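Hi team, as promised in this morning's meeting, here are the two structures we talked about. I've kept the exact order from the run log so nobody has to guess. The first one is mostly here for context; it's the second one we should focus on when we meet again. Sequence first, then the predicted structure tokens.
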Amino acid sequence: MCNTTRVDFESSASLATILGIGPQRAELLSKLGLLTHDDLLHFVPRRYEDRRHLVPLSDAQEGQSITVRGKIHQAKAMHWGALRLEITVAPETLENRDDIVIARWYAYRPYGIKEGCEVFLFGRVNRDKKGRWVMKQPDYEIIHHDAVPAVRFPMIQESG
């Protein structure tokens, strides 16, 4: 017989009563209109993003949200008013300069980013003034072994 634990809750109880949410996170969730257990159970994200399909940068279009896989060839932190981290990602064997994307994060340092790592990057690509592909504030996933990108991500509106 399966050992299960029954959890009783009042559907109108505050989200702060759920273990791990607490008052601060409950306040953030309230900005999304999520106040009770019942609200959370019936919440549906506005869309899902399927990130399984890798797009070669040579096929990318300006403003398109894509997933790319590559090796970090350069990682440097800069201070221009606020912390900026910039990484250069390209395939293992670089065939032409159009296969390079520069990922930039402002006032945020992604954990585990260092030269030599392989990553998946997901974000909107645009060209900078020099004609290079750039992703600003992309989501990233460090690759361990023969990984594939996470399948789908629920997308909700900003709470802040």
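And here is the second protein, the one for discussion:
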Amino acid sequence: MLATSHLFGAHMGWADITTAAPVAERAALAAIRSDSQDPWAHNALASVYFSTRRLDNSLAEFELALQLNPNFSLAHGYYGLALTYCGRWQEASKAAQHALRLSPRDPFSAIYLGVAAYAQFVGKNYHDAIGLSREAIRQRSDFVGAYRVLTVAAGMAGQIEVAAAALKELRRAQPNISLAWIANQLPWKLDSDREHYLEAFRRAGLD
């Protein structure tokens, strides 16, 4: 849990990944040494691998966590996020929706909705992405990830006023957001997906 918390903060832009990742990796490996059958430990290590761009290793660790506990909703949700950053948006959408079905009143439901929204953005289904991100924000009004998706999906859909309003809220929740931060911190496997995201933010007015 400690490692997962460190990495969530980094992905949201609240912590520096270069500082958070080594601490999180040590905590995850220690947890696995203590109990190699603990799905939380493998979920944590998967999150470390995801945040440090070791995406194939990340997927393998998420899959192991889910073998150990097929009903682990958080692992399904984060697995979906990793799949999305690998360009596998249809599988990612299924993983996020499965997490929501497993635990519809989960305190992490906003995260699962945000993952589902981002998957639809990658698939260029912008209106679906807007709807899902709005629901994520309704559930958690400070959720940086959902504001990012709402901004980029609205930008690509030509809803510039919506994109600008979402970007304003995003800047409030993540003051350090910039094109440079996005390009350097988020772990895409495909250059085309990175450029798609950056172009959407440019249309929304981010520099």
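Starting points for discussion:
The chain has a mean pLDDT of 92.
The chain has two domains: 1-70, 93-207.
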